[in-house]
Structure formats: C-alpha cells, structure tokens
Amino acid sequence: MYFFLSILSCVDIGFTSTTVPKMLVDIQSHSRTISYVGCLTQISVFLIFGSIEVLLLTLMAYDRFVAICHPLNYLLIMNPRLCVSLVLISFVASILESQLHVLMALQITTFREVEIPNFFCDPSQVLDLACVHSFTDNIIKCSIGTLFGFFPTLGTLFSYYKTTTSLLRIPTSGGKYKAFSTCGSHLSVVCLFFGTGIGVYIGSAVSQSPRNIAVPSAMYTVVILF
User: Nearest CA to 98 among 35, 159, 155, 48?
Assistant: First the structure.
C-alpha cells in the first residue's frame, strides 16, 4: 500500500505541475495564449500522468481488497515483484495512450487563434477541433475510453464491492470502523477523481458551456490532488 502511495504522490506532483504553473503565469500576465507545440506537450504530459493516476487508484483498490479479504496471503499475493511490474505496465500503457491522443491532435490543420474554453489544453476539447472525424478515430477514442475509463472504474467498483461485503461480516463495530477508515480516504478520492473526470468528457460532448467544463476540470486537476 505504501509503495503505491509513494508512486501516487509523485504522479500527483507531475499531474498538477502540468496545468497549474501555466495557469498561474496566465493569471499574472493576463495572457491566455499557448503555442501549438506547447499545447501538444501539455496534452501528452497531462495524459501520461492522468492515465497513471487512474491505473494507480485501481491498483490501490485491488490492494485494499487483498489486504482485507485475504490478509494472511497479502504478502504472498502483493509481493514486491508484482507491485513493480504493475506500476511499470501502467507507465508504458499511459505513454502509449498519450501518444495516440497526440497523433489524433496532429490532424488539426488550422491551430492559429483557436479558442479552447478551459484553463489548459484539455484533450477532449482539443480533439473536437480536429478536422477529420473518421471511423478509425472514433474507434480509437472508444477503445481508449474503455481501457482507461470503463475497465478501471469497473475494477475499482468490484474491488470495493468485495471489500465491503467482507467488512460487513466483522462482528465488532470497532473492527468495522478501523477497516473502513483505511479505505475511506482512497474511496473519496476515487469518487471525486473518476466522477469529475468522466463528467468533463461527457460534458464536452453534450454541453458547450465553458463553466460546465472548466469547473469539473479544476476539481480533478487541482482541488482533489491537494
């Protein structure tokens, strides 16, 4: 658990540093412009840290499931080799996912004086500016959304479902409270991060209101991580 927490802390620093420093500079200089290369770089780094965050939260949910439901076999199941392997796989998958988004964003032929209704280059909004909306692009978007949205959310919910059913079998209220306290903070972050993140990407497709998109974006990129 502490291994995943240490990695998650480093990822949170990188995730926040992708958007907050540029936002503060824009506020100070009263300028909201960003170069084409700068926008693509921000998208790439943002997606790398964001995807790793999602996968790490899912791994931590599974870690809690093993710790509570199989405490005697915890060290055997969650051995250091497996933990390191899972983190490395998460890093590689996140890098590949970010590069797919960047390749789709490169299809934008006219990037001059394009307005993005957000305080950073949100991938979902930038990709909406692409001139080409082919069948292949839609398949890639759906695949990425399934792999990095649906499956992690489903895995987290299933882990906490099994964890909750095990916790309810604890006879004493003190034991239940102690067990729930180890999961409460992680579960609250998961709900806020996944909920606002999914809301942004759904909202960008349904609503064009800058406020409806910018506020949830600030929640899952700045507020939750602090």
Answer: 48
Distance CA 116, CA 73 (A): 50
The one-letter amino acid at 198: I
- Cβ partners under 8 Å of residue 39, min gap 6: 111, 121, 126
Q: Which two tokens stand for residue 41?
A: 């770089």
* Residue 173, φ and ψ in degrees, nearest 5: -70, -35
Residue type, 146: T
- Say how many Å lie between the first and final Cα of the chain, rounded: 20
Stretch (H or E) spanning 18: helix 2-29
Could you report the per-residue pLDDT of 178-209, keeping only the tens digit for each? 667 777 777 777 777 777 666 666 555 555 55
Phi, psi of 191 (to 5 degrees): -65, -45
* b/e burial code for range 2-31 (CB count within 10 A of at least 16 → b): eebeebbeebbeebbebbbebbeeeeeeee
Per-residue tokens: 14: 């990188």
